[in-house]
Amino acid sequence: MASVSVSHMILFIASMVIAASVAGVFTSSVDQLADAIDDQGLEVSDDVRTSIEIISDSGSNSIYNNSTDTVTVLVKNTGTNRLTPESGQIDVLMNGQFQAPEDVAVELLGSGQRWSENEVIRVNVSNITLQNGDHRVKVIVNGDEDLFLFRVEGQT
Fold first, then answer.
1. Are 137 and 147 in contact (CB under 8 A)?
2. Arithmetic mean of pLDDT, 5-29
């Protein structure tokens, strides 16, 4: 009779040790999952608050300068997120080809160091040789993108 009680006691203690270790693992996993969800929420918030629009005139002759092989577009921050106006933070695709950051120059047309809501930047993409015809520029900032179509005419 005493041997049965001792066996039950050993099994009870073993099950309590296993339950405590499982609870510890679950608690740690739940904390890590909660932290990951918080981080993802902040990133999504930045993406949602970011909005840009290319406001250059597609009929203008100032988009492409064939003497300097430069494409220039004006981009407006139409979102509520304050952005960094640096070429490393802005991706540019010219006719579907990614442009290296060293070929992209960004100039903030407003005052201050940050690209605030409703402010405009000038994006100059150098080392571009375009033929007559239709072309497209895609600007990507913080996950938001805008596509700009323009035509080059009269180039030799």
1. yes
2. 81
Contact by Cβ (8 Å): 104, 55:
no
Pairing assessment for the beta strands 104-108 and 97-98 based on DSSP bridges: unpaired
| The dihedral formed by the CA atoms of 100, 102, 108 and 109, expressed in degrees to the nearest 10 | -90
CA 156 – CA 32 distance, rounded (Å): 61
* Same domain assignment for residues 76 and 138: yes
Query: How far apart are the C-alpha atoms of 62 and 71, rounded to whole Å?
Result: 8
State the average pLDDT over residues 1-28.
79
Which CATH number do you get for residue 78? 2.60.40
Residues in contact with 18: Cβ distance below 8 Å, sequence separation at least 6, in sequence order: none
Q: Supply the pLDDT for residue 10.
A: 84
Same domain for 12 and 29? yes
> In sequence order, what are the beta bridge partners of 93?
98, 138
Is 123 exposed, middle or buried, given 0-12, 13-18 or 19+ CB atoms closer than 10 A?
buried
pLDDT tens track for 47-90: 667 889 999 988 888 899 989 999 999 999 998 888 888 878 89
